[in-house]
Amino acid sequence: MFEKDLYQLIRGLRAHKGNEREYIQKALTECQREIKSQDMDQKGSALLKLVYLEMFGHDMSWAAFNVLEVMSSSKYLQKRVGYLAAVQSYRPDTDVLMLAENLLKKDLTSADKLIISLALGTIPHVINPPMANSLLTDLLPRLSHSHAAIRKKTIVTLYRLALVYPETLRPAWPKIKERLQDENEDPSVTAAIVNVVCELGWRRPQDFLPLAPRLFELLTAGTNNWMGIKIIKLFSALIPHEPRLIKKLLPPLTALIKSTPAMSLLYECINGIIQGGVLESVQGTTEGDEVARLCVDKLRGMLVLEGDPNLRYVALIAFAKITDSYTDLISANSDVILECIDDADISIRTRALDLATGMVNSMNLQAVVERLLRQLKTAGTASELDDPSNDRATHSAIVPMADDDEDGMQANLRRREQKSNQPPPLPTDFRQLVIERILEMCSKDMYGNMNDFEWYVGVLVDLVRQCPSGAQEGHESSLGQSVSSAIGAELLNVAIRVKAVRAEAAAAAQSLLMTERREYLFPPAGTGGNGVLFAAAFIAGEYAELLPDPAAVLTSLLHTSSGQLPAFSLTSYVQAIPKVLSVLTSDQQSPWTASRKTHTMLFTARIIHFLEPLTLHPNLDVQELAVEYLDLMRLASEASSNQPTEEDHVDYPEPPLLLTQAIPSLFIGMELNPVARSALRNVPPPEEMDLDIPLNSNLQMVLQKAEYEYELDDGDDEVYRLYHERSTINGKAFGAKPAADSLEPPGQGQSRSSSYQAEDLDEEAIERKKAERRERYRDDPFYIDSERNSGVNTPMHNILRDTNGGELDVDAIPVMQLKLDSSEMHSDVEKRKPKARPVSKPKKRFEIVSDETLGVEEARASPITSSSPAKSSALSRAKKNLLEVDSSGLSSLSLSDTGAVGPGASQHDFERRQAEEEEMAKAMKEVERLRLEMQRAQERIQPHNAPEEGMVVKRKKKKKKPKVEQPGDEEAAIATAAIAGIGTNEDENSPAGVKKKKMMMKRKSKASTGTSEKLDEDGKHWETEVPSKPKRKKKRSVALEDDG
Amino acid sequence: MINAVLVFNNNGQPRLTKFYTQLDTAVQQRLLTEIFALVSTRPNSACNFLPLPPLLANNAASKSASSQSDAPSLVTYRHYATLYFILISTSTESPLALLDLIQVFVEALDRLFENVCELDLIFNFETLHAVLGEMIVGGVVVETGLEKVVEGVRAQGRVAKRPVNESRGGAGIWAGR
Predict the structure, then answer these.
(1) Which CATH number fits domain B2-175: 3.40.640.10, 3.30.420.40, 3.40.630.40, 3.30.450.60?
(2) Of A19, A314, A702, A880, which sits with the fewest C-beta atoms within 10 Å of its C-beta?
(3) Residue A202 to residue B80, Cβ atoms within 8 A
(4) Integer Cα distance of A940 and A293 in angstroms
(5) How far away is chain A from the Cα of B6, in angstroms, using its nearest Cα?
């Protein structure tokens, strides 16, 4: 096979349309061979091909060493390829980096500015902390190189050094500053310095304040817009640390805003004013108002300017930054901002959406939301194929393709291609974002902006239909479901908090649950809206009495398709079913007619039919609920079939007590109120609680006893008494809660407790007893010995009774302790949540129930909140963004105290380093001399048959072995071996000399490349032997392979 | 600072990749595909700023609190004929200035190749790197002047035009091999 250069590779690629993969594999194998060639030209061209293929994702890390070989070539063009390969392929963990260091040092001191440039351009890509330290000495002198190009690249390289090893900035900074202050410096160097200072500036702005006068001078000189932009960026970071700058900066900035022809500079002026917080600090003064108006006018101009979407985009970003401080100015421009919500460009829309979220108030909320809704409704859904994440992202890798469009490839780049201007259909994630934002806008400040909850409930139902489909495998729970369950949560929130629209919420839940509407609400394109069903079913169950048509809801809940729902929704369904049933059948007033009986029997039969298969559901929650309710339903069915109707000639046909009393009492309890997220945390743990001791040491006995009791059950049931007692306490404690108060009309609390009474009076009812007994039996494993814990622990029984009473438990546990300070708590809550109180609205008044929480919140929550930002920042520190260059090390490095204690010490450090380097150089020379002598000695020994490389190595090893046994490390052994080899002359070599060498050897990596090259000139076969380090051994083995 | 410079064509074929942070080749490719997916669906009328691709957006949310950080927050692109030029940068760069920077880059290429087209860049990708090296070092812009960039590249040696027989019809010749 002929050798190919890059041209031929690319041509070949273009010719092998269809089987590029194969061709590339072949090319890679060739490269692997060619790169080991002794011919530097061939090596270089193979490397260039590898670099080209690396661009397409073909890893070339295996060639790291060959890259180094080409880098050290003496020909510039080959060197350039080598350096390019290093930039593209070296990673921080590439081990030949240690060897590259010396080469870089050498090339940095080259006389050729092109070679210096290569090294300067490469160092930022390969630098690591140890290298940074040693390269610094060679970089610093380049700052005064005669060529401006070298100077500016050096400055940037020094910055990158400082990023990996901040200490290097200390010696470098005074010199960089000197360059910046130098008026005669080349303007492009000054610009580069400004760029670097801008990068450094935001980490430690206070250190750069002394530069302000010079920067100001540069800004007002106004020679370079690029630099102007950077200076303004830097100033915006400095202003918070030096308020006097504002006064100084405002005139030139306003002048620039008014006069500059460069849009980018104009924008950055405004942005700088905003970002630097100038507006906030001059707010109120006439000057300040003028500036603010000027900025906003210009931004508005950018928004309305036809044909430049970029300006619109950046203007929106700038607007977003002043939403908090200049709400009125933003609102004045809400017309143009809202226009952008409908912009064809998704990027602009997203920005406008962000802005709109911050901008809404009670006046414009409805308009904004309506607008967004309309957008969702009218825009086409991105089809599955259009969705980029569906096809592109699943691409395994980029394969270089033969290009089919020759004409296109030759199209002049200066001409912009015309594409269709059709707005793309809304992508899924944008849809999701819009819905999230709508929810956020509406619920902000505990519905502070909401005027009309009926409207809101309607919006929520509309949104369900707009949920993006998350139907693809694997995405189901993450995408559509999450946003639709957020809608569900909102619906639930409204239903619970706003009593006035509870009926509407229940109706909405009904409309969501109806199977007839499923086609409409959840279009076949996806099941994205399904997440809302959990909340809908919960609302339907909890507020079943408010449902417009409970029978229809029950039918929908029992629909066969419901069984296929995700377990999460299904649990809610199963819970809701008996609740709705109890509303349908519990009527105590009307007589037990035959038709009623038939209806009831029908309902229970259908429920049983629905639940039976669910007892085998893979999800344990579903299974447990199904089993529980199935038994209950069987009982109910039995009870209703046995209950005599009027046909059986009973005087007054009473409905079965199980239906009218027992089942409703399971579900009718205290109203569920919103509980603050932190409330549970604030429940004081009971003092006597010790989680380490078993709850009951003789559980077995208890179980047996329970079994016994079950058999012997009599009317005097301890559990009932316990339950009775607890319920009254609960009622009281609950009534004391402020939010609960505001929720409940005076009558209801009473009626509830009376129902508890009634329940107890009816204890002797046989069916009821049976039911209770069954339930208790089920509870048994959890049943806690009443003698020990009856007052404190919540029996499982209670939980069962308030079926969904998870939240109730929070109140129930600490009831005893909290009773006392409940009045304080009341006022406390009032004080803390002023917003939660109904805000006076022009049209309607809605009571919005705020979260219930416990009085201790303040004390306990504060440490938690204060610790959480720290935690999150620690987290974000740990998770580094992909492309991020971490500059956090710089923030701890102070530059301001030049000449003071800190730098003094490091200066010293730096000098010491330099001294060390010199010593090193001396030692190197010494070794060099010894080596030469060694070589001469060797030549004397074997003058005739110069051995081939492999043999030399072997011989060397033999020599080494006996010496290794000597005390001292390997290097010492080798050093002495070397000395011995040279002959008696060197025998007198003092131990000090050996020591020196040892030290020198430790610097092996640095020295190795250089020395090996030098030796090359003297005799090639020595190359592999001289360095005695492990690294060198590696090289040796490579060389041997080459030969073999 | 600038975190990465990418050039690819309308089919997503890379023509230049330069990352100022060391990344695994596989991750580079993934980022490239993600950005291409974003950029290729945009109409011409759209603005030149992309939302962050998923790979970069992961933890951007937590960072957005502070106005400035080391995390890349800006993806700027320009579309010229068959090629997309992409810059990924942090918030210390000015979005509008970056657009101008791409323009300077393309103009410099145009000056060097005379009516530059994609083929020139394919066959001279070393020169492409050289031009970039004159403008950006280690993620920091060092030169924005067109003349100086061109001068700097020319100083490194003659810039080759694309092979003559690679033009129209040339493909036929090579296809025969």
Answers:
(1) 3.30.450.60
(2) A19
(3) no
(4) 91
(5) 10
Extract long-range pairs of A322-326: CB within 8 Å, 24+ residues apart: A322/A274, A322/A279, A322/A296, A323/A355, A323/A358, A323/A359, A324/A358, A325/A279, A325/A280, A325/A283, A326/A279, A326/A292, A326/A296
Chain A residue at shortest CA distance from B18: A88
Q: What phi, psi does A639 have (nearest 5°)?
A: -60, -45
Check B46 against A121: CB less than 8 A apart. no
- C-alpha span between A366 and A170 (Å, rounded): 58
Give residue B162's pLDDT: 59
**Domain boundaries in chain B?**
2-175
Closest by CA position to A390, among listed A465, A512, A318, A473: A473
The ipTM assigned to this model is 0.90
In DSSP notation, A960-994 reads HHHHHTSSS-HHHHHHHHHHHHH-GGGGG--HHHH
Closest CA relative to residue A645, chosen from A588, A593, A603: A593
Quick: pLDDT tens for A351-373: 888 888 888 888 888 888 888 88
The answer to whether residue A543 scores a pLDDT higher than 60 is yes
CA dist., res. A149 & res. A160, Å (int): 17
Structure-derived torsion over alpha carbons of residues A994, A1000, A1004, A1010, reported in degrees to the nearest 10: -110
Chain A: closest CA distance from residue B96 (Å): 5
Hey, are the CB atoms on A7 and B123 less than 8 Å from each other?
yes
Distance CA A733, CA A87 (A): 71
Mutate to test the interface with A, among B15, B45, B48 (most CBs of A within 10 A): B45
Alpha carbons A502 and A456: distance in angstroms, whole number: 12
Amino acid A1027: pLDDT? 43
Q: Do B20 and A398 make contact, defined as CB atoms within 8 angstroms?
A: no
Chain A residues touching residue B9 (CB < 8 angstroms): 403, 409
Distance from CA of B85 to the nearest CA of A (A): 11
Cβ–Cβ of A56/B62 closer than 8 Å?
Answer: no
Kindly state the average pLDDT of the residues A885-910.
56
| Strand (E) or helix (H) holding A514 | none
